[in-house]
Specification:
The complex is a heterodimer. Helices cover about 15% and strands about 35% of the residues of chain A. The chains are: A mainly beta, B alpha/beta. The interface between A and B is medium-sized, with 18 and 20 residues.
């Protein structure tokens, strides 16, 4: 059987070591399904991985990932590595990192939380990283990965 | 310990030492006739109805020589014209030295504290927290039992009742033995229980009310709210099964005490009021010294 070779990207982002099955959520976070539907993408899912068992990979041509997108990906796929590519060269490589606190990245899932009614920046304390558990600093309600994914 | 200038928003912000300090100060307040808050003004901002909390804060402030301004419903304020909570706080803080706030939205008191330059005390934010209620519950238990590592049974709506969530959290700090009894669907939320894992508290859930009562030093009863039941027939059935009468108490320890955050509907039969177990009106009375302590400490009037 012929090997299918995926062309290396020239400029853009390679997102590797995504928790198996989370690739579509990564596409949603980066707006690649709605805001940038014509972006050239390579998506590999459930690729065997020594470290993770199974991992997903997303290659995005022509778009460099933003800091707030990296923060969101960290919440659902904490082992992800981000490679920024310019002229075929990896110019930056980093592992995502879940900060101790999150500000303005997500909306509180509690419909009666004051942040849904007043002009206030959402604030969360990261209580557990795996599985993710965030506590709203205002209403003190806990958000799980399911509540988070629903927002993407 | 110095709580001067501190906001009191959630029991989760307080350490065991903070709580002990507040309870000790409350004890002193009962005997004190000093007026250390003379010239200070409290603003009570109640966006939601209250009898006990608002009046006891006012009494506490006046007993310490201070004055009280405020409102008891949002209809009489510019909030009714659409003014935001942030703007309301930025206005009110110019008129007073401390704010007590009750609001129907969870997190409103924390937001008020973020905006305000003066201390904010949470008197209930939706179904979230009501820390001075928890403090007065603890004070009552301590006063009656002289300790907090008690056997306690909590009975009633444990899902929506904000007082029970913060009370179990606080009692868990003292390794209390906690028994939870609630109708199906009104159990203590898993996330509240999960939160207690950091302590060594022993928690047990049961539907056997009599055994729960017979093992307890303290029985804490909460109202089962009719509006939570879509089927009125189901409500009637549950209400009957969770009603505390002299008969349900026949195997109780001799020195059992019964607490209730009030208002009560009929989950405790009136015949229990005259029994040696009832302490819910003493509990109300304890709201005053506890709130005197909190006001005195955050305003720096007492140490």
């Amino acid at each position: 059987m012929k090997d299918i070779r995926v062309k290396r990207i020239k400029n853009g982002t390679v997102i590797d070591h995504i928790t198996g099955g989370q690739a579509f959520n990564v596409l949603k976070i980066m707006g690649l399904r709605k805001e940038y539907p014509r972006t050239t993408l390579t998506v590999a899912m459930n690729v065997p991985s020594k470290k993770l068992g199974f991992k997903d990979i997303v290659k995005v041509e022509g778009k460099e990932i933003k800091k707030e997108e990296v923060d969101k990906i960290a919440l659902i796929a904490p082992d992800t590595t981000i490679n920024i590519i310019r002229e075929h060269e990896v110019i930056k490589k980093e592992k995502v990192n879940i900060p101790a606190r999150l500000e303005g990245v997500l909306r509180c899932a509690n419909p009666n939380c004051i942040t849904r009614f007043e002009d206030a920046t959402s604030k969360f304390i990261v209580e557990e990283k795996c599985p993710i558990k965030l506590r709203c600093s205002y209403c003190e309600r806990v958000m799980s990965d399911k509540d988070i994914v629903r927002q993407f | 310990m110095n709580l001067k200038g501190k906001d009191i928003i959630s029991i989760r912000d307080l350490t065991k030492k903070d709580i002990e300090y507040i309870l000790k100060t409350a004890e002193k307040m009962e005997k004190s006739s000093d007026r250390p808050l003379k010239g200070k003004i409290l603003s009570c901002m109640f966006f939601e109805p209250s009898t006990r909390t608002r009046l006891s804060f006012s009494t506490a402030m006046e007993r310490m020589g201070g004055d009280v301004i405020g409102f008891a419903s949002k209809e009489t304020t510019s909030v009714a014209k659409g003014e935001s909570l942030k703007d309301t706080i930025k206005t009110v803080e110019n008129y007073c030295d401390v704010i007590v706030i009750r609001h129907p939205k969870e997190g409103a008191s924390r937001l008020a504290a973020d905006v305000s330059k003066i201390p904010v005390i949470n008197a209930g934010d939706g179904s979230n927290q009501h820390p001075t209620q928890t403090l007065l519950d603890l004070y009552t238990i301590k006063k009656e039992k002289n300790r907090l590592d008690i056997n306690i049974a909590l009975i009633g709506d444990l899902k929506y009742g904000r007082t029970v969530h913060s009370l179990v959290y606080a009692l868990a700090m003292w390794d209390a033995k906690i028994t939870l009894v609630s109708p199906e669907g009104l159990e203590m939320p898993r996330e509240v229980l999960g939160d207690l894992n950091r302590f060594n508290a022993k928690i047990n859930e049961t539907d056997d009310i009599e055994t729960a009562i017979s093992n307890s030093d303290v029985l804490y009863v909460t109202r089962i709210q009719e509006e939570r039941f879509p089927d009125p027939g189901e409500y009637e059935k549950i209400k009957g099964a969770y009603r505390i009468t002299l008969d349900t108490l026949k195997h109780a320890k001799k020195d059992l005490i019964i607490l209730h955050p009030l208002p009560r509907v009929d989950e405790i039969a009136q015949e229990v009021d005259d029994s040696p177990y009832a302490r819910y009106f003493e509990q109300v009375n304890n709201g005053v010294p506890v709130r005197m302590a909190v006001l005195g400490l955050v305003l720096g009037g007492v140490r």
